[in-house]
Amino acid sequence: xxxxxxxxxxxxxxxxxxxxxxxxxxxxxxxxxxxxxxxxxxxxxxxxxxxxxxxxxxxxxxxxxxxxxxxxxxxxxxxxxxxxxxxxxxxxxxxxxxxxxxxxxxxxxxxxxxxxxxxxxxxxxxxxxxxxxxxxxxxxxxxxxxxxxxxxxxxxxxxxxxxxxxxxxxxxxxxxxxxxxxxxxxxxxxxxxxxxxxxxxxxxxxxxxxxxxxxxxxxxxxxxxxxxxxxxxxxxxxxxxxxxxxxxxxxxxxxxxxxxxxxxxxxxxxxxxxxxxxxxxx
Length: 282
Description:
Layout: E1 11-16, H1 22-28, H2 31-48, H3 55-58, E2 67-72, E3 90-93, H4 105-120, E4 125-129, H5 131-139, E5 145-159, H6 161-166, E6 172-182, E7 191-192, E8 194-195, E9 203-207, E10 220-225, H7 233-245, H8 251-260, H9 267-278
Parallel strand pairs: 1-2, 1-3, 3-4, 4-10
Antiparallel strand pairs: 5-6, 5-8, 7-9, 9-10
Helix pairs in contact: 2-9, 4-5
């Protein structure tokens, strides 16, 4: 199908797959607020011509107009009503501390719902972040499993030729990471965006069929990334501190994060921009 038209203002459904840890939520709000900041700052950065992430610095600017409705798919197992689905332009799935391969009711319902939207409501674009990336993979023919390795903090990954095209010619992308599960293989119908030595699938894309220009981001139907474009260094600091203190993250991983903490982060200006570009907004 051809790339669908977008409402004015754009309307997005955010599926909340977790709640931030208390130290993060006290200072930065829930994931609805964190993703609202990402989307707002990506629009602001695109209009200003920014080429590197400045998430915190952009927070003081007046927000461009869009609608972001949040749905708690964990505790309330709530989703957009079937009769209202077509009033949205896109669905975003957040990250989560849960494992996408777990056989529990809320995850199974989420997998089924994503499959339904991808197959039966193709005019909605789908964006998956970390756990969301893994859910999309599981829903549409792939698998999710433990990788055996932590990836934490700003991490470069090499882009494929398709990834370079999607992200404006870059050879590599730096994204904040916080995971030890992954989608090892790209499901049929998707193309790989990039990889790291310990995570062969750092993101994937599915395009709408049609005769549009190969470089036109509006051809993107589904886009996922294993990293966290919504995380700032300050958010990751708090997560690493808490998880290292509890023993979830090994000491050497926390130490390596401290070494790389100040590395660049393309979350806003690359992934955030592509979300809006796929909707024809920038």
